[in-house]
Amino acid sequence: MEEQNSELLEKIRHQFDTGPYPRHPIEASPQGNNNFLFIHNIVTPFYLRNKSVVNPQGKVILDAGCGSGYKALALAAANPGAKIVGIDLSEESVKLARKRLAHHGIENSEFHCLSIEELPKLGQTFDYINCDDVLYLLPDLVLGLQSLKLVLKPQGIIRGNLHSLFQRGVYYRAQDVFKMMGLMESNPGDMEIAIVQEVMKSLKDDIYLKQTTWKTSRENDPEFYLANYLLQGDKGYTIPELFASLSAANLEFINMVNWRHWDLTELFQSPDDLPTFLAMSLPGLEIEDQLHLFELLQPIHRLLDFWCGHPNPAEPFLPVEEWTESDWDTTRVHLHPQLKTAQVKENLIDCIGYQRPFEVSRYLSAPTVIPLKVGSGIASCLLPLWEGPQSVPSLVERWLKIRPLNPVTLEPVSQNQAFQEVVGFLSNLEVFLYVLLERLA
Question: Where are the extended beta strands (E) located within 26-96?
Fold first, then answer.
């Protein structure tokens, strides 16, 4: 078995030496891609787990399986002041990663040609580990997770993902076809890609395998073939297998990376009026069962993309819906860093000036399922957040200046009424992490 695993790892190494992934040009930058940076910003998972706002300055972040370095660049862009460490099996990929970050002026970074199982050799521990599009290639998933855990700081967080067996099953059938043809016995190259292309194009258009896997728009893209039809070591997993692997590695599930897009109730025509049996049973379901039911009903996600960490590392916190007025009075309000751009601020000011609703999800859609708009009046309470965190009382005072009178009765708005309106506004945005609420007492 060990010999087979070593042989497979060599095939994977050779494949990514030949075709480093992803194949973005060196000059390409993730700046401006707010959704991509939202996922790679460590503020997001740490707030989900602890309801506190972490400062990336001085943090050490590992990109395990860094490939050609594009995601390492995203980690650097999303977490200014953090040190980025990348490892990869492929020496050619590591060279590209070094070149990419140097091109973009990222000095606080280092890259090593190393397997995940060899991580302890670095002699470093990490606040955050990004292991994206890697774990499903490992011969031993649990061993890989355990290796990541060994170098994770006690309060650290790991992002990992697995290919979904249900969503990607048709590609595994395609891979079996090309294994039968001997195209994956060694490192696939131009000849193997040409054969796959010829076979797929020659199939009738109504053949199921072609209907479900073939993309005419990418028929001349080598990466399309290598990442799908000819991907060495590719395996699919289910939600129960994910949770079983985390348990075996003694890691604790935190949340799905795109957690809002795994909401089971959103699969029904009337989420507030579910069939009686489901309405009674869903609230009591464990998170694993809810996610598994989602993937059985709607296997649309290529990746089972998750955050995990050491068991019981979360800091205790009081849910926002249970806060008292005194809790709110001692709360600092932050804007999520991926919204805190000059362009978003300019557009908000424009909406305020023309009294148009501010569609906050236009700038960061990852946490939402449907567009989210807020009134231009109360949205103006967000403006001071570009200067820095603000107290809730200061935002209430701002709201009283903006709307001192009730527009219906023309009576003065009371302090308590303004407080309730601002609290409701912030609570709604906090659900989507557009604002982050840091309770100080």
Answer: 60-64, 83-88
